[in-house]
Design a protein that fits this description.
The protein is of the alpha+beta class. Helix content is 38%, strand content 19%. Strands 2-3-1-4 form a 4-stranded antiparallel sheet, with helices on both faces. A hairpin with a 2-residue loop joins β2 and β3. The longest helix is centred in the middle third of the chain and has 19 residues. It is globular, with a radius of gyration of 15 Å. The termini are far apart. The mean pLDDT is 93.
């Protein structure tokens, strides 16, 4: 084969530290755009970003040179520094330590995209903790909840 081809689609989820509701509607468009730019610069494509005040969801195709742990380290550290400078109200902004990254099959990509784009509506009935625990369960990821939250 003369070419290396890769299509790995992931759904990324992480929250603000202690799930502080700092990502108000005032800041969301700029933070989502900045996260998207970082992902794009790291070779990711077909990017959708969404969320609410205390967490984000991202859907993207990983670049073929992408190392997931390094992607997350750069995504969170770069965007955290940038967000703190966005407004004095965000000077104490931090992301939580951990994250979730879940594989998405091509047949489910559009459903995940729609889910991300309707986060505000979705979170009228389920908070972040419930959502995240449900996602872990759906992906058969066993966790000890004592060590899950920061």
């Amino acid at each position: 084969m003369t070419h290396s081809l890769c299509l790995v689609t992931v759904h990324i989820v992480f929250s603000t530290k202690d799930r502080q509701p700092l990502l108000t509607k005032e800041f969301q468009p700029r933070v989502w755009a900045y996260l998207s730019k970082i992902l794009h610069n790291m070779g990711c494509t077909d990017i959708t970003i969404g969320g609410i005040e205390d967490h984000i969801h991202a859907l993207c195709n990983l670049g073929k040179q992408c190392k997931p742990a390094l992607l997350m380290q750069d995504l969170k550290s770069d965007s955290s520094k940038w967000t703190k400078e966005l407004d004095p109200k965000l000077s104490d902004f931090y992301w939580q330590t951990g994250y979730g990254m879940f594989s998405v099959s091509s047949s489910h990509r559009e459903a995940v995209r729609a889910y991300i784009e309707t986060q505000e509506e979705h979170h009228k009935t389920e908070d972040f903790k419930e959502e995240y625990l449900r996602m872990l369960s759906e992906h058969n990821i066993a966790v000890d909840e004592r060590y899950l939250w920061d």
